């Protein structure tokens, strides 16, 4: 037999570090920092996670969420800029979209356990698998965005370039938002719990990144739409982020604390500051436009890495898997009980 | 056949998956009330499937040094030491040996007890791992079980967080995902899976799922009558969040105590809603882009219109004043 080290198993187990122990009747309590939401107490299995967190690397997968968003929303902005004759901005965005989607694809392949088998992604088309849908989407979008960029760079085949620009502009929003479904269609509490809101957060964050790129790379005289998009997307980002937090309930702790909390706070500051700088001074000051644009890009990246980190944190602590499920069961039991009472009352069994 | 392909009761998953003339769906009924924690199942599974060793460590978790299901551990025997809520019924004539530390504080007059449970892949009726696998590596067999094809899997790792039970995992040194196959090779040869064959107490029972469900219902009633009030079935109900498990359990305490989720859901159930929201978000993104290109010029036009109106008005006023 071969040896297959599992690093997790060789670490000092929690039971030996104090905390949970083989003492029977382990009631779960949090040592150290106070939970923001009082937790329902429950017994777990030596503090072991109930679900398995993904083995994805944050750099590859959160990086992919960011780059895919930048590329997708960038293509939409590029199409607009192309159509309205803002050629320099359009060209810059076409380059950034091609670069983004290329890097994103490289990150995805790098993260595979068997990178040489990346073509297996296109073996089948499975609508039930967001990763399959996404692979096909990328296979369509990548070459389209590439054609748009190459035509813009070389000036060759302007007609075909315009068609490719429009095509990438139409596919772009799908590339930017499907990644939210990719994350949400898992048992990870912080992702699946927010499956309704996450696509809007990703759309807003992607637009913020793309407008940031347009501000940083495009000339001042062309940047009115980018400034408008920056303001709109920063507002939408704020609203969607709040909606995610509200929806997650106690699981939102994972967004507020630890690595995810730090990243999320950085994202808020960067996004607001970037949008403000762009909107207020971006039309007359080149440094303000560039700084605002870079801040928006960094803010968008922080948002994706924060969501990623919150997901890992929520998968690693069993409380985030068990407590919401238990609450759902308790609520169902309460409803059933009330329905039972109503029924009996209705049929006169309970009498006067 | 229609309507329940993503969630809800589905009587015949293998036919729905396209198999014709499928044999009856088989499964495991793991009756933890008779498990003695011998781990013969773990060993038999490792042996038969030639699974690599994956960590020899002392966990401090009772007699459980295996710790969890993983890519190279397809049966995992959980050990829980706890003070029983009330006296545990002892069968007539069984010698009772005192447990070390039985008088530990907090036992409230109850006795110490061990709960042991041999965990395994649930071979869900609606398997999230299978739904999300982009390569088609995970598939539904003619027996209604869920199996990974090692020559197809590219180690994307999507199945890992999708499983609501934390079963399937990537093998670190290999990259691909692995899990229990319910001994697909043995089933094909008319044999029962290795773990069920090795289990000395029939804690692991293998057979057609319908039969197992009937047997389990009888057994839980029997235990309840004998005063084991904590006895309950887990994963037996086709109405539950995954459409019922192909491998289900009789437990003596809350599922979370064994490291099992209390109300697992196949996330694909919400996939249509997720695609709708993603579509709406994409449209919103496109609309926001269009707005960004129209709004500034509209505002500018409005501003200049206002400015010219204002200057016209002031000119008119000035003219009026001069008169
Ligand atoms: S328990 Fe997990 S790995 Fe097993 S079939 Fe269900 S979803 Fe797949
Ligand atoms: S890791 Fe393998 S089995 Fe799992 S989803 Fe990816 S391709 Fe399918
Ligand atoms: S399930 Fe059977 S083989 Fe496995 S530990 Fe229990 S008694 Fe032993």
Automatic annotation (TrEMBL), chain A:
Pfam families, A to Z: NrfD
InterPro entries with a match to the protein in the record: Electron_transfer_protein, NrfD-like
Record's keyword annotation contains Cell inner membrane: no
Compositionally biased region (Basic and acidic residues): 333-346
UniProt keyword annotation of Transmembrane present: yes
Protein keywords: Cell membrane, Membrane, Transmembrane, Transmembrane helix
Region entry Disordered, spans: 1-37, 333-352
Topology versus the membrane: Multi-pass membrane protein
Ranges that cross the membrane: 61-83, 95-113, 133-153, 160-180, 200-217
Compartments, record wording: Cell membrane
Family under the similarity heading: Belongs to the NrfD family.
Protein name, UniProt field: Polysulfide reductase NrfD
Automatic annotation (TrEMBL), chain B:
Coiled-coil regions, chain positions: none
Places the protein is found: Cell envelope
CDD domains in the record: FDH-O_like
4Fe-4S ferredoxin-type domain: residues covered: 26-56, 112-143, 144-173
Keywords: 4Fe-4S, Iron, Iron-sulfur, Metal-binding, Repeat
Superkingdom assignment: Bacteria
Chain segments carrying region Disordered: 1-23
Main location: other
One family name in Pfam for this protein: Fer4_11
Name of the protein in question: 4Fe-4S dicluster domain-containing protein
Organism of provenance: Streptomyces gossypii
């Amino acid at each position: 037999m071969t040896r297959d080290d599992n690093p997790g198993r060789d670490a000092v187990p929690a039971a030996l570090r104090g905390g949970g122990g083989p003492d029977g009747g382990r009631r779960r309590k949090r040592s150290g920092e106070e939970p923001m939401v009082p937790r329902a107490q429950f017994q777990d299995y030596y503090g072991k996670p109930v679900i398995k967190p993904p083995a994805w690397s944050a750099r590859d997968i959160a990086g992919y969420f960011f780059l895919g968003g930048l590329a997708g929303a960038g293509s939409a902005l590029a199409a607009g800029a192309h159509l309205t004759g803002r050629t320099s901005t359009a060209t810059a965005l076409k380059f950034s979209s091609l670069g983004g989607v290329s890097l994103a694809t490289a990150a995805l392949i790098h993260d595979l356990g068997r990178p040489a088998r990346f073509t297996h992604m296109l073996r089948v088309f499975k609508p039930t698998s967001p990763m399959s849908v996404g692979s096909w989407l990328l296979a369509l979008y990548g070459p389209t965005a590439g054609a748009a960029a190459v035509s813009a760079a070389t000036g060759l085949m302007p007609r075909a370039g315009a068609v490719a620009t429009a095509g990438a502009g139409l596919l772009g929003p799908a590339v930017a938002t499907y990644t939210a479904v990719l994350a949400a269609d898992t048992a990870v509490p912080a992702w699946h719990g927010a499956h309704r809101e996450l696509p809007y957060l990703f759309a807003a964050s992607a637009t913020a990144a793309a407008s940031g790129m347009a501000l940083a790379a495009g000339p001042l005289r062309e940047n009115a739409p980018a400034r408008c998009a920056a303001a709109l997307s920063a507002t939408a980002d704020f609203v969607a982020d709040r909606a995610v937090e509200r929806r997650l309930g106690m699981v939102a702790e994972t967004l507020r604390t630890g690595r995810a909390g730090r990243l999320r706070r950085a994202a808020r500051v960067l996004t607001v500051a970037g949008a403000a700088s762009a909107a207020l001074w971006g039309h007359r000051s080149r440094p303000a436009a560039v700084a605002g644009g870079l801040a928006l890009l960094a803010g968008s990246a922080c948002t994706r890495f924060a969501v990623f980190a919150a997901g890992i944190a929520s998968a690693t602590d069993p409380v985030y898997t068990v407590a919401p499920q238990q609450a759902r069961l308790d609520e169902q039991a309460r409803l059933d009980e009330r329905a039972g009472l109503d029924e009996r009352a209705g049929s006169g069994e309970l009498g006067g | 056949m229609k309507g329940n392909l993503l969630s809800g009761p589905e009587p015949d998953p293998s036919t729905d998956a396209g198999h014709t003339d499928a044999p009856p769906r088989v499964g495991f009924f793991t009756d933890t009330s008779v498990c003695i924690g011998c781990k013969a199942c773990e060993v038999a599974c490792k042996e038969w499937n030639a699974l690599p060793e994956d960590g020899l460590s002392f966990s401090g978790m009772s007699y459980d040094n295996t710790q969890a299901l993983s890519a190279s551990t397809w049966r995992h025997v959980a050990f829980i030491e706890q003070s029983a809520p009330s006296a545990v019924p002892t069968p007539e004539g069984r010698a009772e040996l005192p447990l070390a530390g039985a008088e530990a504080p907090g036992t409230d007059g109850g006795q110490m007890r061990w709960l042991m449970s041999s965990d395994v892949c649930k071979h869900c009726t609606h398997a999230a791992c299978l739904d999300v696998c982009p390569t088609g590596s995970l598939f539904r067999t003619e027996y209604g079980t869920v199996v990974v094809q090692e020559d197809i899997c590219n180690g994307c790792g999507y199945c890992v967080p999708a499983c609501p039970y934390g079963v399937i995992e990537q093998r670190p040194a290999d990259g691909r995902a692995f899990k229990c196959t319910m001994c697909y090779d043995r089933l094909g040869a008319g044999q029962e899976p290795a773990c069920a064959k090795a289990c000395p107490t029939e804690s692991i029972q293998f057979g057609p799922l319908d039969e197992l469900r009937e047997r389990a219902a009888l057994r839980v009633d029997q235990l309840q009558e004998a005063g084991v009030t904590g006895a309950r079935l887990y994963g037996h109900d086709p109405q539950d969040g995954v459409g019922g498990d192909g491998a289900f359990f009789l437990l003596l305490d809350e599922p979370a105590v064994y490291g099992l989720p209390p109300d697992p859901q196949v996330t694909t159930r919400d996939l249509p809603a997720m695609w709708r929201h993603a579509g709406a978000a994409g449209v919103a993104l496109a609309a926001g882009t269009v707005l960004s290109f129209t709004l500034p010029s509209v505002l500018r036009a409005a501003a200049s219109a206002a400015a010219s109106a204002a200057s016209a008005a002031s000119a008119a006023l000035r003219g009026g004043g001069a008169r």
